[in-house]
Amino acid sequence: AALAEEEAPSLPPPTNRLYIPDLAGNFTYTSPAQLLHLTEIPPSEDSTLQKAEPLRTKVELVFDQTPFHPQGGGQPTDIGTITSDDGSVSLEVFHVSFSFDTNVVTHHCMLMSPTPPTLNATYTLSIDAARRENLSAFHSAGHLVDSAIYRLGYSMLVPKKGYHFTDGPYVEYGNGKEIDQAERKTIVSRLNQEFETLIDQDIPTTICMMVKEDAEAELNRTANNFDFSVFRDPQVRIVGIANFKCPCGGTHVASTSDLRGFEVTGIKMKKGDLRVKYNRK
């Protein structure tokens, strides 16, 4: 069946991202949601689908709420499915994006059923739980690097970039040149000692929303490591991994004990920045 041309008359309101407010939301893998905005994407000749498959209709959907984490903040996109209760509507979610201008989450989908979705109807959104758990672990392990760095006394290092994909994750810090050559030779082994200690301590993850000014005062009290001017909203989401707190919009594990098996694999200096690489053993 052809997809009806349906669009909301105005921009949808900000999406309620279920994983944002607290840790429990990070383990919400399925949820009902009302469809607020629908856009059909015309099929293109360079479709990524195999030629043996029928050409599927691509759609972009916006709901009032979602358990899906969009790609961003160094974390890959969630994938999953969207279905109706009676099974007549079925879509595969292959990518999820987020607009910082509107705070709207868009689900990029492939229509798998003859029946298309309709505006204002309620559907079940389900993420790939195994993928989410793996990506959460890789993201949290990056924060564990932050905690280990801080525990070694390197508060002068400024977090600049986190790449938490599974293909070579790392955390990059400014002011890396302040660590002398002798210390660099032993930093990997010392970081791994901290990893083992923090993992054995089974430290619970914390997630909370804080007023931006309060968060800046608390997190930058020992070093001006975080630039809060980039945050547009009056409240900032603060994640604590191994008692190290930082602003973050990603999903995470429940405790440091869930990170057993991760290790620091090496460091690299580039234009004065220190890149700390990590991965599963």
Automatic annotation (TrEMBL):
SMART domains: tRNA_SAD (SM00863)
Ranges where the Threonyl/alanyl tRNA synthetase SAD domain occurs: 236-277
GO biological process, one term: tRNA aminoacylation
Cofactor: Zn(2+)
Record SUPFAM superfamilies: ThrRS/AlaRS common domain (SSF55186), Translation proteins (SSF50447)
Gene3D superfamilies per UniProt: 2.40.30.130, Threonyl-trna Synthetase, Chain A, domain 2 (3.30.980.10)
Pfam families per record: tRNA_SAD (PF07973)
Gene Ontology MF terms in the entry: aminoacyl-tRNA ligase activity; ATP binding
Subcellular location: Plastid, Chloroplast
InterPro entries: Alanyl-tRNA_Editing_Enzymes, Thr/Ala-tRNA-synth_IIc_edit, Transl_B-barrel_sf, tRNA_SAD
Similarity comment text for this entry: Belongs to the class-II aminoacyl-tRNA synthetase family. Alax-L subfamily.
Protein name per its UniProtKB record: Threonyl/alanyl tRNA synthetase SAD domain-containing protein
